[in-house]
């Protein structure tokens, strides 16, 4: 009886968070197909550890951490390098409604050009809206490392997008 309850709880959690996980995975890897693979692998890992995850204070944070670890582990493997090359090929997939399509495409290309740790830091800080401490916890590194990775990532994005430093906002939380 308890197993059925856990399965129902897991199914409900995944159904309500699948879109969010997929969007986050896409920002990490830059390829919808690869994002689907990352989410599927993360959901499988989450299921095998659902007893621990269901008892976590922040299930979304736990799921995000599993997704992030899955992405970073793939980046370190030979398979990750092969998949990254495939993802670098031009994509013609629709992203969804974007106010300025050209800017959206430029941002996707620039984000894909960042090293994996910088990309993960930028996505967690500015897309997932995590604080420096929360990002540091998710990446298992120091807050200073998060600050430097975010700074380098934003600097690279500014350079690639040709925006310089004018008109940028600074987050301190």
Question: What distinguishing features does this structure have?
Answer:
173 residues; Rna Polymerase Sigma Factor, Chain: A; Arc Repressor Mutant, subunit A
Task: Produce a short descriptive summary.
The chain is an all-alpha fold and 173 residues long. 76% of the residues lie in helices and 0% in strands. The protein is globular, with a radius of gyration of 17 Å.
Structure description:
This protein is mostly helical and 173 residues long. The chain has two domains: 1-89, Rna Polymerase Sigma Factor, Chain: A (Orthogonal Bundle), CATH 1.10.1740; 99-165, Winged helix-like DNA-binding domain superfamily/Winged helix DNA-binding domain (Arc Repressor Mutant, subunit A). It is 76% helix and 0% strand. It has nine helices and no strands. It has helices spanning 2-29, 32-48, 50-54, 59-76, 78-88, 101-113, 116-127, 132-139, 143-161. Helix 1 (2-29) runs antiparallel to helix 2 (32-48), helix 2 crosses helix 4 and helix 4 crosses helix 5 (78-88). It is globular and about 55 Å long. This is SigE family RNA polymerase sigma factor. Belongs to the sigma-70 factor family. ECF subfamily. Residues 15-77 form the RNA polymerase sigma-70 region domain.
């Amino acid at each position: 009886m308890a197993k059925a309850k856990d399965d129902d709880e897991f199914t409900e959690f995944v159904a309500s968070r699948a879109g969010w996980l997929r969007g986050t995975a896409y920002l990490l890897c830059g390829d919808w197909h690869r994002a689907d693979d990352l989410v599927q692998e993360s959901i499988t890992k989450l299921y095998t550890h659902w007893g621990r995850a269901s008892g976590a204070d922040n299930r979304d944070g736990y799921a995000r951490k599993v997704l992030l670890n899955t992405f970073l582990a793939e980046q370190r493997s030979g398979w990750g390098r092969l998949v990254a090359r495939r993802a670098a090929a031009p994509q013609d997939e629709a992203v969804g409604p974007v106010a300025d399509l050209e800017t959206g495409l430029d941002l996707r290309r620039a984000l894909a050009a960042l090293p994996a740790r910088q990309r993960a830091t930028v996505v967690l800080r500015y897309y997932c809206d995590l604080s420096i401490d929360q990002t540091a916890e998710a990446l298992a590194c120091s807050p200073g490392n998060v600050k430097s990775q975010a700074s380098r990532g934003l600097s690279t994005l500014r350079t690639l997008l040709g925006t310089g430093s004018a008109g940028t906002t600074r987050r301190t939380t």
